[in-house]
């Protein structure tokens, strides 16, 4: 049973309906009854509907008005082009195919562009429909300009929509909470289940599915890419702090070096949050980098607190320090990403350049990369563009070949009722057909009773528009199509004499559009965006498993072979297997991240929120990639054979779990690498112990995230994965620069 829309949603729909109704009615009545210009009236009526109802332009009133003014020149050009190409059915269909694909594919540029696409398509559709009348172009453009101008004024002055909270504000609020938690830990208030729950809830709020569509950083530019990475890294910081708050262990309660780093992380989070709000200049990550480097230099030393007098206590201390180190590394990534996103920085400081590959290229280059990267059959945007172009082209061909008197309605039905999956399309067109039938009956009664009394249609149009535009968007396609049928009947009956057959024509045209849309939905990628996100995440999980194996092998091999480690200035491991696995995983990670961003741009409804946590899955693989960058760089003494055997067996278990997780079984997987044996810790030389703890921490963090991908409820923390009840965090980092989480 569909969920009843919330009161705020109903209020927003009613306000938007009031703005569109006032703009459409003012333009339509003025042009028709004052200027006696029917063509101007038609375009003045449909321009506000195109940009105010059909186009889900995101943002508040000012943002929406700005976007409408920005798309006005393309709207004028499309109207002129459609008028010219209406000369023949063939030219109109060819234009529809090309423009349908090009405009739909332009959604890659971000939410604002994606929101305006349906309206822009409608301007071409309306103009390319017969009759071929190039002499009416001035009137068409005049009506379009008047309608858009009236809508812009209404967006600014009539019940303007409130501003949408930007995603950067969400990151800033999360960083404030992270700073407070880190400071509390530094002051000795470490264990706090309540604080852990709040940290996890704030981390879940950073998922793109939880943000309004207009605020999601899914654009192709440097700012959106940086904010998206900052949001993901901030979520990791919160998760890591939550696990620290759940830990019963108190090994670092009197560790001065840990307290100093916690205070440094708190200060860095606060400074970054202030920068996101515009309260101060954007800080670079250099200060925190120096603190991390200093912490790495002393982390293998005793704390002097008396807690490290035996091997087990020393191991716990190293585990806590490793967890803290990786939390600081994630905070470093947040600072670096924000510096690139809003600070204009064009490098990643000492962090892996592959993480911030978007920092150097120009905006035009990034936009070109987004477009060329989506020119593949695996791209959701490419699939949607092809599906839309084919549907509109077929509809225009049918309307022209059959010489339908109101064939525009066929194209409008295809444009408004098409969905990204065959199942959703069938459900939509079935409801729309029922709604149109009821609406056609109501319109037929109206026309029959009113006869040729134009005043009746004029009186009915305004309330019909308000109800249609306020109820339709939230009540579903049946209500939307039924009420809109009444609207077009009342409008077109004022333009020319009409009888009850107008309602029948409307019904047949909508049914034809429904049929075309359904056929396209079945033929062209019927599984939609969900399938591509699922496939992309599955591929990257499968490639991350071998990466974990070869990274651990490189670390334990590096323990006795210094030349395997990277030299200064070259963060990449020298082991060929690691290099190749890293390249493949990084490539697939970009594809999966792109599919996820496209899904959140293209799919408004969060249909997969009850399934796997795609955002966490990408975070998990990102942890694997980052660990593969930094773990092999550190040199240690030779590791004992039993330590090497444990490391490889534990990595193999986790890699197998990643492979199983790629199938997304119901309930997810329970990943648990082998715990670091106490006898291995006791026998390991002191210089090697940090490497073993780093591997153990990295593998257990990946296991905890892997377990949480497919199962835990949003208010549930991932299950414990360490035998003594602790939940250690992500990868250990480089001794000189930390790392980016």
In short:
This protein is mainly alpha-helical and 741 residues long. It has helices spanning 7-34, 38-54, 61-85, 89-105, 111-128, 137-157, 167-186, 193-204, 222-246, 256-276, 286-298, 311-341, 363-373, 380-401, 408-417, 422-450, 454-475, 477-495, 501-523, 528-558, 576-602, 614-630, 641-661, 678-683, 689-709. The protein is 68% helix and 0% strand.
How would you characterize this protein structure?
- With about 750 residues, the chain is mainly α.
- It contains 25 helices and no strands.
- Helix 7 runs antiparallel to helix 8 (about 195-205), helix 8 (about 195-205) packs antiparallel against helix 9 and helix 23 (about 640-660) packs parallel to helix 25 (about 690-710).
- The chain is elongated.
- The model is unreliable at about 560-575, about 600-610 and about 710-740 (pLDDT under 50).
